[in-house]
Amino acid sequence: MPDSDLRLTFLQLVQRYDNATISRPPTEFNSPSEFDDEVLVPLYLSSSPSSKDHQIVIGLLRPVIIEQLKTENEQSRLANKQELWDLDIDTASSKPRVSFAGWVDTPSKRTTAMKELCERWRDSGVFPDVCGPKKWRAELYPVYKDPFGPHDHPKDDSNESNFAFDMERSACALFGVVTYGVHMTIYQEIETDMSKELKIWVPTRAKTKPTWPGYLDNTVAGGIPSGMGVFESLVKECMEEASITADVVRKYTRCVGSISYFFRTSAGWLQPEIEYVYDMPIPSDTDPIQFTPKPLDGEVECFELLDQSTVMDKMRAGKFKANCALVLIDLFIRLGYITPDNEPEYMKIITRLHGRFEYEKW
To answer: pLDDT of 204-214, one tens digit each?
Structure first.
């Protein structure tokens, strides 16, 4: 739970979640980690040199995963089955690499292979802290060839699209693939003679949540499931989490950008994430009742309308889910509450909120 004695700066809040590195030593921008010396091996999409997917990197693998993939191939050989992985990791003259075996050459084949693998790992308890029965989400996330490219999802099993395959949400961190989410904040700005006051609807996460139980969020947030567009994911989450109807979301919500960060969990798992950010400002001439969020699916205990200073104080005390604190920092910057004049680390914060995970070095 959060430490009531904390008084984090905004940059420290960003550093808490954008904390993973793959090629640079610890500096003022990132804290030392016990996992800094791990050799991370890139996961390529194809093992075939003739394939245009041969040089596409989709994830980063930790040593413990490499050893498990070796075991997987050994078990396949013993069972007279095709090996799933091409492991080019012992060649001293070249960069180590792992890729899907040549026969796994379409999105549907990769999806089927990963489904069987992840379910077996779940049932055998190989990585219970990540994809065990208590962590299993039963929700597919898309993996894309270019993590900064289009979110397409063709129905014809085409290799021409950016879509690579689907995999179980909880297992994504095992393979270090980029995941995607959507965040929306409902706020109200009240103009006075001398200034303006900002109020934000803030939920408290249910204590039964598998991640960050009891922490605070921005108003609505959720992952983007496979096959669903970004905005439609937001519409779904708004109803499920906050009882905000689709017609209100479609009329009053606006896309305002994205944030991205490279998070390493306390157990060392890699979670590069892109979050699409939306605002729902409450119009001054509209009945605010239709914008009042209410818990619906049990993932939120309650919603509170908090003023800006209270939200900032709770953020600095570590009471917000870390990536939701980043979304709110982005909001405060865009609305002019965090500026170069009142925040000495303004440019460091801005650049850290829009990282590329050192993707060119994977």
So the answer is: 999 998 889 99
